Amino acid sequence: MTIAAAEKSPILEVHGVVKRLGGVDILKGINFTVAEGSVVAIIGASGSGKSTLLRCLNMLIVPDDGEIVWKGQRVGWVQKGSTWVRQKEKELLGYRTQVGMVFQSFNLFPQMTALENIIEAPMTVLGRKRSEIEEEAHALLRKVRLSHRVKAYPHQMSGGEQQRVAIARALAMKPKAMLFDEVTSALDPELKGEVLTVMRELAAEGMTMILVSHEMGFVRHVADEVLFMHQGIVKERGNPSDVLVNPASAELQAFLQRVTD
Amino acid sequence: MDVFIAQFPRFLDATWLTIWMFVLVTTVSTLIGATLAVLAEWAGKPVSLPLSVYSWVFRGLPELIVLLGCYLALPAIGLDLGSVGSAILGFTLVGIAFQLEIFRAGLNAVDKRILEATRALGMSWWLTMRRVVLPQVIRIAMPAWATFLAGNVKIFAVASAVAVTEVMAVTRQAIAVSDQPFFLIMVAASIYAAIASILMVLEAVLSRRFSTRYGLGLRR
Prior knowledge:
The complex is a heterodimer of chains A (261) and B (220).
Chain A: H1 3-7, E1 10-21, E2 24-35, E3 39-44, H2 50-57, E4 65-70, E5 73-74, E6 77-80, E7 83-86, H3 89-96, E8 99-102, H4 114-124, H5 130-143, H6 159-171, E9 177-181, H7 189-204, E10 208-212, H8 216-222, E11 225-230, E12 233-238, H9 240-243, H10 250-260
Parallel strand pairs in A: 3-10, 3-11, 8-9, 9-10
Antiparallel strand pairs in A: 1-2, 1-4, 4-5, 6-7, 11-12
Chain B: H1 2-42, H2 45-60, H3 63-73, H4 82-109, H5 113-120, H6 125-152, H7 167-176, H8 181-214
């Protein structure tokens, strides 16, 4: 982590987050903080709770216990008098607009073109003018190198192109942080690179990023901190050049062996 | 031919009656069926189970029984809708059951992972339905909807059984006062064929339009 990033107050704090799903403890008390402008990578075997944790951060999944704190404010709860009350789904929407998310399966709107996918939420959620946001959408498509695909429908695009549109769609909301959930896992090897390049550029611009990834090379070069999750806890954490090179636990050693094979 | 010319105004009225009953029944049953499909999908078992029973019963019953029930049984409990009213109610009850299933299938075909994306973008449930889900459902359900309607219009001949003077009723009355049953049956057949053909052309046009523009990739 850069010294500048470490000194800044955290933009996101996770305190003792617990989640049970179907009687199984998926997350058993997760703690970490994310400094503004830093990149945190979450790694671990499937079933270790990575994706659940990422969804807790923007309340797509509501934790059973613990706190998510965004810019010093507790997420998902409001104080009424002396008691804390859970927010309803509707009240969480405002928070979600500040945290962009990109998914493994792209999840573009199939009946809309690339451009329409990007301008949809800024128009309908933020109430912005079409002409204004269209200009920004064109700039975002340039940024993800898809200027030539403005009018393409998702089914006409490759996976890599769809995923870059999905990134542009999330960025159009002008989020303060981005969540990436295994965004290259569904892509053919030759298409992963174009998506990772866009992400690397975003990180270089200072975007706060939290990503679940199996791309160890990417994690090593881009992440400021790595969290290794195993059976619902953070088993190891630290600078990627330490953690990934000298794993302390047998679990991480075994995991790294598997993913680098 | 004389009998046709003499009966022409009645055939015209009957055709018109068939068409507007059909349009009314289709509109109402589509709107209610689609709404119930959304409810069945999102309100959970307490709502979806009774709806499943409803659609099972009304898709299974012969239209004639439903119409006779509305025409003969409802007045017994103090609800007399008359012949046209009974026919409209009966066809609508059956129509809702079919539309419910058509739109339910359409909703099921929408990739639910899209809903995570809309939530993550801060879109409310209603906004998601209106802007993202329903436009897809309409595209997916369109062919099945149009196919159902093209096949459904002929069922309206059954309305003659509850004294509605639609095409079939007028045909029977005309046959009774003439000696040209074959010709008159052909007239009736042509009228139904014409209406059904219009619907089938509409179906083909709509299906092609949607499949060329959005065909692949509705699911991934």
